[in-house]
């Protein structure tokens, strides 16, 4: 059983491995693969499904659209996801591609406004792509944390509300403290290998 901290460590370590390349082709293909897997895991976890294999058959674009429509990932990341996916596909089929300032501008224009200027200042396409991949990684990792917290909060709130409705004797702690304690308990015991069992 893995707790929230070890899940975050895993996500960071895997992403760092993917980004550890001076070659834009290798970096993009590996990081895109990681993002694709992370999106699949995010959707499976949100759906509380163990059917990971079925979800792996979906395209990156479809997973992105699904995660956004489920409000797991914010809509502002859709253009960047599409642009990164397009570049990844181009790199996978045309290995000898040269990228220049126009490509940096196109990539930056697909990014959320809050990082656009930063990306435009990147001196090389490789660095701009690293930034784009890091932005998407952060969005997906945040979605994991948000999804888990919301689920844990919902379970905890329902348990406390049910105990009140069942006429259970009042506890020493305030309901908000009981909810907070139960949320921490759920998150500490989160089983990443089997999302269906998390309660």
Walk me through this protein's architecture.
This protein has 199 residues and is mainly α. It has one domain. Helices cover 72% and strands 0% of the residues. The protein has nine helices and no strands. The chain has helices spanning 4-19, 24-46, 52-56, 60-69, 78-93, 101-110, 113-120, 125-165, 175-188. The longest helix has 41 residues, at 125-165. The radius of gyration is 20 Å and the shape is elongated.
Write the layout of secondary structure elements.
Blueprint: H1 4-19, H2 24-46, H3 52-56, H4 60-69, H5 78-93, H6 101-110, H7 113-120, H8 125-165, H9 175-188
Helix pairs in contact: 1-2, 1-8, 2-4, 2-5, 2-8, 4-5, 5-6, 6-7, 6-8, 8-9
Q: Could you tell me the strand content as a percent range?
A: under 5%
The quaternary state of the protein chains shown equals single chain
- Count all strands and give the number: 0
Total separate domains: 1
Mean pLDDT: 81
Termini gap: 13 Å
Number of helices: 9
Global structural class: mainly alpha
List the secondary-structure elements in sequence, H or E: HHHHHHHHH
- Give the overall form: elongated
Name the poorly predicted regions.
194-199
State Rg.
Answer: 20 Å
Largest beta-sheet characterization: none
Keywords:
single chain, 199 residues, mainly alpha, 9 helices, disordered C terminus
Quick recap:
With 199 residues, the chain is mainly alpha-helical. 72% of the residues lie in helices and 0% in strands.
């Amino acid at each position: 059983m893995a707790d929230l901290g070890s899940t975050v460590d895993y996500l960071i370590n895997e992403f760092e491995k993917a980004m550890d390349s001076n070659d834009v082709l290798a970096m993009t293909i590996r990081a895109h693969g990681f993002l694709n897997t992370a999106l699949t895991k995010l959707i499976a976890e949100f759906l509380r499904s163990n059917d990971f294999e079925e979800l792996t058959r979906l395209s990156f674009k479809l997973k992105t659209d699904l995660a956004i429509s489920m409000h797991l990932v914010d809509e502002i990341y859709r253009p960047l996801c599409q642009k990164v996916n397009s570049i990844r596909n181009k790199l996978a089929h045309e290995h000898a591609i040269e990228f220049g300032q126009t490509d940096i501008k196109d990539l930056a224009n697909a990014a959320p406004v809050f990082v656009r200027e930063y990306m435009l200042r990147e001196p090389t396409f490789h660095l701009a792509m690293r930034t784009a991949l890091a932005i998407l990684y952060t969005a997906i990792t945040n979605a994991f944390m948000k999804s888990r917290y919301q689920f844990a909060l919902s379970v905890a709130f329902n348990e406390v509300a049910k105990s009140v409705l069942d006429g259970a004797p009042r506890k020493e702690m305030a309901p908000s403290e009981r909810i907070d304690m139960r949320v921490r308990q759920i998150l500490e015991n989160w089983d990443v290998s089997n999302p269906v069992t998390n309660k």
